[in-house]
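Researcher: Please predict.
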Amino acid sequence: MTTDEEAPSHADADPYVLVLRSGHGPVYLRLTDGRAPDPDAGASLVRAAHRGRRSVLNRCVGPVLDVCCGPGRLCRGLPGRGVPALGVDVAPRAVAHTVALGGRALCRSVFDRLPAEGGWQTGLLIDGNIGIGGDPHALLRR
């Protein structure tokens, strides 16, 4: 997929990375043949993502460490439920986005020193593996 705002040289780039690079949205996705994805399918996926996110948030017992938090959708949603949360991510723009929208996040590896080490009741790792070097076993040992 590509975005309408990006040059064709980025045709294979991840849309999430492109949004972070530009620093703003919206991003309109196009298939490589130029067609737009079916908007009804997209809306259905968004609804499913919201249900999934609520389900994850409902299971969190604080304090929560959101590993590879990205734009912080989860760690930003927890304080409003009375659950303290901190996001950690290696992507500076993702962390800046989280903080700009009111979340708490640090730009560092989960393998670096973190506040309240040993005190996190829940660790979230949702769709993230770059920040853990693709090694979930190392994260679990940590």
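Model: The helical segments are 15-22, 39-59, 73-77, 92-100, 136-141.
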